[in-house]
């Protein structure tokens, strides 16, 4: 037996917090009865329906998207701004949601799925899934400054794990540089904060890769479904 909100989250219906809201607002039925009490436990034999759709009827979906700027990487937005779900239009009937987030002004690789177990494992620190970012920063970082990132840097209330980082190009006239950084954590605004801490604020940020997945020929706003072998490789990385 597991808590209903946990089952909903693992099934890819929504995040744990959003699932709790769905329950308390009467959108979830268990065996035909509306359930509004958090902490309700269910088993694999119970029929769970959300907004009239049985959660067990959804086939697993795995999507790789090139997130553009000015798009929110959530399922919905209380300010009514455009979200990544708008980019899927009516081509995906299943209830997918983003695996982690990218900032409003950050572009690049974003995964979406309704496979809650895979999503949870991909974002769990235990599996150290690498993400590579390319940033345009103010100023030109010195090797000594980058060494602090390579050895783990204190950022706000947490110490970031050691990251791979290097300057790939520099414009001395404009006093800017392009920095490549690979991390395996996913703290809020982490890359921006790490570079800000060494004195080089980020002007532009793009996630080039998520694990072995890259954008390929996708353009901003475009997406594709993952190939079966890609899904298999991701699951292997998180021991599924």
From TrEMBL:
SUPFAM superfamilies: Alpha-L RNA-binding motif, Pseudouridine synthase. One of its GO terms (molecular function) is RNA binding. Gene3D superfamilies: Alpha-L RNA-binding motif (3.30.70.1560), Pseudouridine synthase I, catalytic domain, N-terminal subdomain (3.30.70.580), RNA-binding S4 domain (3.10.290.10). NCBIfam families: pseudouridine synthase. Keywords: Isomerase, RNA-binding. It comes from the Bacteria. It is an enzyme of class 5 (isomerase). Its EC number is 5.4.99.-. This is Pseudouridine synthase. Residues 2-59 form the RNA-binding S4 domain. Belongs to the pseudouridine synthase RsuA family. The keyword RNA-binding applies. GO terms for biological process: enzyme-directed rRNA pseudouridine synthesis. GO terms for cellular component: cytosol.
């Amino acid at each position: 037996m597991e808590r209903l909100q946990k089952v909903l989250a693992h099934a890819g219906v929504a995040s744990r917090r959003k699932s709790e809201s769905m329950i308390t607002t009467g959108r979830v039925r268990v065996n035909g009865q509306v359930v509004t009490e958090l902490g309700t436990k269910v088993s694999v034999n119970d029929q769970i329906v959300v907004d009239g759709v049985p959660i067990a009827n959804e086939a697993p979906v795995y999507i790789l998207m090139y997130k553009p700027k000015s798009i929110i990487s959530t399922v919905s937005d209380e300010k009514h701004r455009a979200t990544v779900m708008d980019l899927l239009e009516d081509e995906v009937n299943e209830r997918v949601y983003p695996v982690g987030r990218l900032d409003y002004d950050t572009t690049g690789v974003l995964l979406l799925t309704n496979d809650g177990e895979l999503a949870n494992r991909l974002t769990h620190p235990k599996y150290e899934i690498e993400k590579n970012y390319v940033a345009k920063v103010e100023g030109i970082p010195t090797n000594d400054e980058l060494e602090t990132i390579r050895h783990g840097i204190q950022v706000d209330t947490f110490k970031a794990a050691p990251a791979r980082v290097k300057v790939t190009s520099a414009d001395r006239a404009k006093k800017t540089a392009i920095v490549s950084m690979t991390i395996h954590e996913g703290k809020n605004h982490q890359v921006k904060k790490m570079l800000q801490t060494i004195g080089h604020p980020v002007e532009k940020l793009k996630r080039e890769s998520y694990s072995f997945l890259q954008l390929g020929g996708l353009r901003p706003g475009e997406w594709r479904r993952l190939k079966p072998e890609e899904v298999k490789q991701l699951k292997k990385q998180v021991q599924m």
